[in-house]
Amino acid sequence: KPLPGKAHRPLKPSASRAPGIKSNVDALKFLSKFGYNECGGSGSVQSKDTGPLCQSSFQTMLEHFQTVFHLPVTGKLDDKTLNLMNKPRCSLGDYPMG
Amino acid sequence: YSAFRPWPNTTLKWKLNNQIPTFGREKTRIHLQEAFDDWARYAPLKFREAVGDEQAEFSISFNEGNHDDGFPFDGAGGTLAHAFFPKDGKVHFDSAEEWTDKYDGFGYNFRLVASHEIGHALGLAHSYDQTALMYPFYQLMQPKDLLPKDDRDGIRALYGNNEDNQPTTFASTTAKPLATTTTTTTRKKKTTAKGGKTTKTTTRKPQTTQPQVLAHDRCARYMDVVFGGGPDKWLYTLDYDLVWRYHPDFGHWDTSGIPITDVFQGAEPHMMAGILSPVTKKIYLFKGYRVWRFSSPNSLDSGFPRRLFGTGTPYNPIAALYEKGHIWLLKGGLLFKFHEDKLIYEFDRPPKRISEQFPGVPKNVRTAFTYDGKHYFFTEPDRNVYVFDTKTKRIESDYPKPMTTGWFACQ
Which ipTM did the prediction report? Predict the structure, then answer.
């Protein structure tokens, strides 16, 4: 937050702003992009082409993310999880193999 | 930390393709050099900017949105930058971000993000330690706190230790040195064409670091413990209180030893025998009557070290080998079968001699290890090495050989 007395510097007028993560669909894209979809595909959680063995539910992915970042493991897109997902970050995935 | 893959060479060059408009080229270069120094301070790595059309390992650029590497940036906020693991070397920053060189919480400090991305380009993946620079989410840190311990451990796991903790850089003979670069000189007499007069220019070559010589000694020395065969393919050697590693793919040793307690937390100096079980993937270190068990180098299993009991338990075994699902421990020319599950020894009556189990291997074994289906026995005082092939159950035809050339880390 801007320190009292310091004028907040406006963003560069030309810069578009990264879309925030607000919904489950947004969160699913985020989790797939950064390597939390054990099926390896991006965006397709119950994908047929990876066969019946690959059942990685949205809740599992959320719990995985919450576990490794020491958040309460609720399996739900709660405020703390949303808050962390919306923090600026490195765009490399969190698993080198991914 | 998650150490993924190192560069095979440790003298690396970077090329800046464009810069932060508000910084200009010079300021961008200076902060990049600071970011490289963050890593050079804790690992035997040397960095400098490429000159002219010199080939560089790292290619650094600022892009916006799609920039055809399959990882488009997303505008201000969101993702800030990314880099690729060795030996790719590309480092990209989102030019739509509010980059700053201040540490006051406004904007994103370029030096911190650059240091994080260079960590990737050097082979480190993200860390879940929130105090780490390699933590995936941006967090403000003060320069005096760089590098946090987790990142120091990570870069040392990849490149070994940088003894004197000074960032070392090298300058090309033609480069205009950056303000922070130390110039190197060679001690040779040069003639210059000025007016036909000979003027002596004294220059000094960078010191070859002592560990290089030590590395060579590594071949001719006995090490307390040698074991390998893990997924990371490193051959670990323990030499009193230091760990030296050899990687067969890169064909070189660590350029300097890493304190044993930095690699095997909970271990003690002067371990006597060690092995990595290819079945359970556990690492066992033996000393006296005790055994340490690690699930990975830096995680000692709870309850360890443990005291081993039973009559006839060997004190300070000199080596551990792996064959057909069990561990042999060697002591006094005899073999003791160690059971991983029960953590006890079983020995035959009469005890089995080394030469019975491994025909052709003499009694005077000083140390030994198993790697990739072969046992390497080092003997004294003749300082020879015997390589025993566990498939053919024979000593390989052209062995024994002198230690200095006869084991794979020195061929």
Answer: 0.78
